[in-house]
Amino acid sequence: MNRRAAFVLFLIALATEAPAQEATPTTTLKKRGWFSRILHPFSSTSLPEYKNPRLRGLTLDLLVTPQIVKLSEVRQLQIKLIVTNLGKRAVTLDFPTDQRIEIYLRNSAETILTKWTDNHAVSEKPATVLINPQEHVEYNETIATRDLVPNKVSIVEVFFPQYPELNIRQKFMTQP
Question: The whole model's pTM is what?
Answer without folding.
Answer: 0.72
